[in-house]
Design goal:
Length: 375
Amino acid sequence: MSLVFRNFPKYLGCRLKECKVMEFTKAILVTGGAGFIGNHVIRLFSKKYPNYLLVNADALTYAGNLENLQDVEHASNYVFERLDITDEKGVAEVFGKYEISDVIHLAAESHVDRSIENPLEFLKTNVLGTGILLNQAKKSWGNVNGHKFYHVSTDEVYGSLGSIGLFTEETSYDPRSPYSASKASSDHLVRAYFHTFKLPIVISNCSNNYGPYQFPEKLIPLVINNIIKKKALPVYGDGTNVRDWLWVEDHATAIDTIFHHGKLGETYNIGGENELQNIELVRILCKIVDEKLGRPKGSAEKTITFVTDRKGHDQRYAIDASKIIGELGWKPSTQPIDGMAKTVEWYLKNTPWLEHVTSGDYQKYYEQQYKQSAK
């Protein structure tokens, strides 16, 4: 199937110097493409697959930032649509406008603390939004082959591990927070559409991501930002909670691999094979940032402050990624020390981005860039 958009330049606000007929073999809807993981997926696909149209659909809530995509926003195979996935009419219009052939569904409310404060917002986006996307894909694609609905999920749906063991694709679901429960619900919906309607789906469940462009409510960028500003470093409980850390660019390559080679109806766990206690991670970051900033050894570590533990805080997550490694040939490439060093270096080199995000100024970018260019 070849998708021909003869008026394609108008979708970019006529920012292209030359208006050309664009032909694409796929039109992929990437939901949440302005978010942390989404921008890395779009960047990878846009550069690697010039014959794919990437349609970034993002509601631009607090964690969606178009400044994350300045290096690809003028690419001939990239367009942005401001869209809330709970808007059924809007979703239908985007599917029709671009003849969407595939979906990579990343859009989600994802911060556990926020889910404790406002559970219903997570149910709305993660469950209802996923259902609307699934239903529209079913309507648009019918029984025609060659499509794929790729649902990106989390290892948190599996619950909490003790000191031993790993999450596999066969691990029973045991979500412990409103966030993980909403993602578990969306996973079940996706599988239901596969079994009931034969919708061509794949699912992946990943461990904790880290790297450039992560919103600083999450642990790693929060710690880096606080060290820069000489603020206290809050650590939940006694800091012994364990997470498996996955370099975000490794996750993007895993998504690429599963999208192109994953078996329909299957689930693939994606892990970094890098387990660290939270306190170990914070101390590593303290050492790296102090060295990068030329501060005395141990300066940042002195500001570590243990705070009241999160409600229902899962003790340990750890992924068994042997299925994707053995069946699809993907494996993580980045070790935590190297990845943390690259992450710190990126944040230190991109302090304007960090300032925009923490101040809220990044939310002006859409109006400045897209509204003006559309005139």
